[in-house]
Batch of 4 targets.
Target 1
Amino acid sequence: MDYIDYKDVRLLMMAIAERGKIQPRRISGTCAKCQRKLTTAIKRARQLALVPYVLD
């Protein structure tokens, strides 16, 4: 992954488990650097209400 955008909800939702938690590296299959970027993007999108904190 070159650039992870916090506005790309479809990409971010693939890295979130069914309960709304961010999936760990061993499950998502990302490298450490990409996982940090992905986590930051998910948290930013949550603050802007683009992605829910908890899924039903």
Target 2
Amino acid sequence: YDQKSLSVVFLELLKPFIPSDFEMKLLVNYENDGRPLEDLADEDQFMLRFGKIPHLSQQINTLTFVGNFPDTVKRLQLQLDSIISASMSIKSSTKLKKILEIVLAHGNYMNSSKRGSAYGFRLQSLDLLLETKSTDRSQTLLHFITNIILEKYADLANFHTELHFVDEAALVYLDSIIQDICSLERGMEMTKEVQDDSPVLKKFIKTNSKKLDSLMKHGKTAQEAYCSVVDYFGENSKTTNPSEFFPIFGRFIKAYK
């Protein structure tokens, strides 16, 4: 398991050349029949020699896993951090809560003649603030509310500074991250099974097992933080993805600015 000689890029290039059992059977039968190997195409000659390496597919998959592990963990860690930070900051922001109360109050005022006051609203309704315009169509409801905030609630004007990594979290597919973490678990188990007397694999396992455990815990924390903030706003965390939830706040902040 020489990672210096076999880069991840090179290993990925080798994968298409791993012969299937059927292909290997044909090539071995050809060789056993005593037919000249030089009559084979260069690709088939390479595949025959390549396919004779013991546990070829397993070795390449293990080396690829080991080589990709650091970058994969780093990528997933950053994505989980954005979910956790965005979820916690949105839920804990007192200024955002007051801004939404102001939005609700104006919504109730506008609809007071139609029905009784509402105790809340769906987050998707924030998008309607730009679509709802005054009778002369000179300004939107968001313009009106923004002016009210600036004039009477100046301390709330910078509410968006309390919200962190909202745009980054909007790009994350949490279910996909959890699947990637499960894939890393399987890869680590596979590596443990084939480590034998390989000092390289033994060192890798010793160095990175705790990192994987930490990533798994981080994944659970991200799931809990996300479900908590979605449920807090009355949405369904089981059917609402981060790519649907966080953009609502991203669009609202952008429009507000």
Target 3
Amino acid sequence: MISTDIILAGNSTHKNVDHLMVELQKKRINNEIQDTLIFVEHPEIVTIGRRGMLDNIQAPDGFASSSVDRGGGLTWHGPGQLVGYPIL
């Protein structure tokens, strides 16, 4: 039987969850924890992945953005959106 831990993080900033993912990834690589799924809702933010280009994009005043070291382009996260992060 395969077991998976589930973390229901509620509403949390992308920065806080990113730190949590890094810590869990280290533990998973060392087999200190089993596979884990994080479910969270973020305050409004756009994440910019390694393929993201901001040449022609200007965020409105007060609109948060954050660069991430994962693949992908631009991703919007916000209220009402359930985001899942697997740590496998």
Target 4
Amino acid sequence: MAEQTQQTCPYCGASLPAEASFCPRCARSVNQRQKVSPPSIRWRKALRRAFPALLLILILGAAGTGWYLSTLPQVYDDGGTGEVTYTDEDGTYQILLGWRDTPYEPAPVITQTAEKDGEYTFPVCLFIHHKDTGVNAGEIFLQKVASVTAEFDTPDDPAAYISYGDPAYDDYVPDAALTSFTHFLGRENSARGTWTISMKNGDVIYLHQTLNVELLETVDIYPEDAPMDTIEDLQVLVDSLGDRVGESDVVNIHLPAVTYAGTLSITERPVNLYGSTEEEGRTVFTGTVQVNPKGISHIVYLYDIDFVGDGDGVGISTARRTWPIGCRFTGWRTAILCHGTGPAGGGICLSDCQFTENQIAVHYNSNGTGFFNSIWPNCAFLNNETGLLFEGESTEDALDLSGCRFEGNGTDIDNRNGQPLDISQAVFQ
């Protein structure tokens, strides 16, 4: 077949070469355009019809994913507030770390003051309440709990310990779900603690608490530093301490080996008295020492002092926290009378003391909230008409008399208020 050498312009009919794409006569393009059909719209109709079903599938998928995620274990972190709100099928709970006297207020930061190298213990409490009513929910919530642990990070001063005791229920704070007795050494220090509550459903709750330890200044006053040979001199010294030392300072007065006749009143600020144990003899008081300083958190320590009565009167009368250590009491109508109310009431602890030939060795007649130390170790009650007399309001925590010896008393223990006692390690002869 012969090759075509001519073409005709489709617009004006002019004869053009076969390869021409433009007609010079009518000035128009002679290329033939290919008609393109638009795509079918049937798939669009199908998509519109299927869209509701696809949307339903997406919604159900999202709901299923949400339900699945809701069944996974959750982590609740207090973010440093000391408090978490936790919700399950039974309700919503307030869970917090706090002080025994403020069970609804979280304590994310605790500051304790301490003497250098002193050893200290205090309670940290886990409180659990129903969020809407504030009712104690500790018992019912703990049924959902697999374990609770408490641990401090390494303190700033690693040589000085800061540690939690194992969390457990303790009737020292009956409203707390759990209590940890926290221990630290008196050094300038800080550490962050974490309580981990692992739930049986796999949830984990983290509560955080920072303990800061600040050192107290200690002021020691010796016989060569100030007059203290008579009860009058000693009273002047005790009364002047408010102007001589800081409010938070610990003051230790080291007494000479003399006999003080008359009453000594410690009513302004706390002070510790150290009796003489040197060869020249011991320090003796023949009158009453009255202990009722301002404030409720301090302890008045009395070391190695002999309290000698004439068959009448009171050796120590205390309405605040007082701790005789290594002291001897003889010849009193009442060797120690403990009275007072509120947190400071019940403020007596004894260690290594001896009570001989008193009508009443210790009369505990307080309406306090509890003992600041519930162990009275290694005391001897010998030939008294009554060793221990308990009146007033009893405490829930038992008083531990480990190592105590009762011998020759008319009545060893007169427990009129039903005070709980642990006498399993005491000796009665």
